[in-house]
Amino acid sequence: MRLDKFLKVSRIIKRRTLAKEVAEQGRIYINNVQAKASSNVKAGDELKIHFGQKIVTASIDNIQENAKKEDAAMMYTIVKEERVEQTEE
């Protein structure tokens, strides 16, 4: 499944267009390799997403084409969340 679609279906990012923009900015990594919106993801992959002040690392548990809100959280597991300190220049 495409990365941008997975992020939308799993509700990690609410809109597919936003997921595409984040990927184009180079803020998403799949297994420590910078990803594009069109990159394929599969169960077992590890995503690292840079959201403003934090970095979220998630492990993909399963892939579903469509998921209800209750089922979306079962598609991934948050491995860790870390805050990013802003450096003043």
TrEMBL record:
One of its GO terms (biological process) is rescue of stalled ribosome. Residues 1-64 form the RNA-binding S4 domain. Transmembrane segments: none annotated. Keywords: Protein biosynthesis, RNA-binding, rRNA-binding, tRNA-binding. The keyword Protein biosynthesis applies. SMART domains: S4 (SM00363). One of its GO terms (molecular function) is tRNA binding. Belongs to the RqcP family. HAMAP family: RqcP. Associates with stalled 50S ribosomal subunits. Binds to RqcH, 23S rRNA and the P-site tRNA. Does not require RqcH for association with 50S subunits. Key component of the ribosome quality control system (RQC), a ribosome-associated complex that mediates the extraction of incompletely synthesized nascent chains from stalled ribosomes and their subsequent degradation. RqcH recruits Ala-charged tRNA, and with RqcP directs the elongation of stalled nascent chains on 50S ribosomal subunits, leading to non-templated C-terminal alanine extensions (Ala tail). The Ala tail promotes nascent chain degradation. RqcP is associated with the translocation-like movement of the peptidyl-tRNA from the A-site into the P-site. This is RQC P-site tRNA stabilizing factor. It comes from Sutcliffiella horikoshii. The gene is rqcP.
